[in-house]
Amino acid sequence: MATKKEFIEFWKRSIDREDKGPISNSEDVQGLLFSNGSNIGMNATIGQNYEDYQHSYENGYFSALMSVFEDARNDSDSSLMPIIFLSRHYLELSLKDEVLNLSIIFGTPMIIGNDLSHDLKGLATQFQHLLKQNGINFFSDDDVFWKIASIIGVLSPYSDEFRYTFNVHGRYNLPISYDDDENNHYVVNLEYLQRCMNYVHDYLQALQFITNDNEDSYLYDTPFWNPYIKGMLYLVLYSRTQKKAENILKSHSSSQVKNWIKEIIENSNLRINSDDVTIEWAPEEYIVKLCNENLFKIFSNQGTWSLKTSSIII
Questions:
Q1: Please, is 223 exposed, middle or buried when counting C-beta atoms within 10 Å of its C-beta (0-12, 13-18, 19+)?
Q2: Helix/strand/coil percent split, the chain, to 5
Q3: N or C, where is the chain less crowded by C-beta within 10 Å?
Q4: Helix, coil or strand: residue 296
Q5: CA geometry: angle at 46 spanning 43 and 50, to 5°?
Q6: What is the model's pLDDT at position 225?
Q7: What is the gyration radius of the CA atoms in the chain, in angstroms?
Q8: Mean pLDDT of the 257-270 span
Q9: Residues with Cβ < 8 Å from 121, sequence gap 6 or more?
């Protein structure tokens, strides 16, 4: 039987530190990590110098996905896990972002308290419905865009299947039985998946460009060009305290609604002065303003509370 000393020695001999750069235990890890290095291109700003969070997350995860696709040429099996996770995560982030962006631009009502689930197939359906509702028939119903979102959603329905060995119920995640037809699909053609993800990204990236925080965006020169205002709207929509929100809105009390939104702002690291937010109760709806500029209205519709901006395009 091996000894612990032999185990430690074996571990040390197995470590390959060649050409990876020196590391000293005397280094100020905190100070070096959060400071500018000599290689300017490798200094990254958290939040991308306060650009819209959507840009940072979407582009970052897609870039990471493309890097792993390249690594897959050397080890496809190990690369499969991060590829499926990153593909799914990128799609989920992008679809949620663009549902919000397009709803703002078209002035489409959004239900307050909707569950922000990880249902990728459902998100794709919601996005597809929003496009059709506003007369944008970019894709046929059998377009690869919808097919790949649906397939990845079935392959990873809870978003953790390719992140963890075991799920939250203690069940082993792999191998996954993917039964879309009579055969179990245990092989994924990563080259084809990369083509599909590039195709989807081309459309989503273009949409992000015209709905995000740049001077060519449809949101430019509107309050929602400010990512923190967009973030406030997002948090009002997807409040974790839905029952509390419903009770406050039913009160028809502008002061209660203001305190609710003020609490959201102050608890969410939003760079907005909550004192600049005003609420007016008009007949059957609240008007939410920032610095006396209308942001959105909240109204009751068939038993649910919805939020709506003024449409930016017709």
A1: buried
A2: 50, 10, 40
A3: N
A4: strand
A5: 115
A6: 87
A7: 24
A8: 90
A9: 149, 150, 153, 154
